[in-house]
Design brief:
The structure is a homodimer.
Chain A lengths: L1 E7 L4 H14 L4 E5 L4 E5 L3 H10 L3 E5 L1
Antiparallel strand pairs in A: 1-3, 1-4, 2-3
Helix pairs in contact in A: 1-2
Chain lengths: ~70, ~70
């Protein structure tokens, strides 16, 4: 089951990659899709606490579920 | 003593923050300055292996010392 979160501070492809990598490092089995236009990240295979911790540590803003 | 590294893939302030945070997490005592125009990161208080690992894990390209 995938969950979509609002993530602030992503403005380019480098940001999107950084967020994806941070989540992948925290939860290696997760699949991650980043939608820059919507400032949204859809994650399958990681729980919300893992996603929040990874995004916070990467310097972006975890804004909860969409 | 600070060392400056070339880092590819940083295109905006979000990328710069992501790189800074990644290095800070790997080496909490380090100070980090990012120069987007030069695609350079200057680090004091972390060794090169730590910096490389952090940048790789964050999804950017570690290109060695400037």
């Amino acid at each position: 089951m995938s969950t979509t979160y609002r993530v602030s501070g992503m403005t380019c492809g480098g940001c999107a990659r950084a967020v994806s990598q941070a989540i992948a490092e925290a939860a290696p089995m997760a699949t991650v899709q980043v939608d820059l236009d919507r400032q949204a990240v859809t994650v399958d295979g990681a729980d919300e606490a893992q996603v929040k911790a990874a995004i916070d540590a990467a310097g972006f803003g975890f804004e909860g579920r969409v």
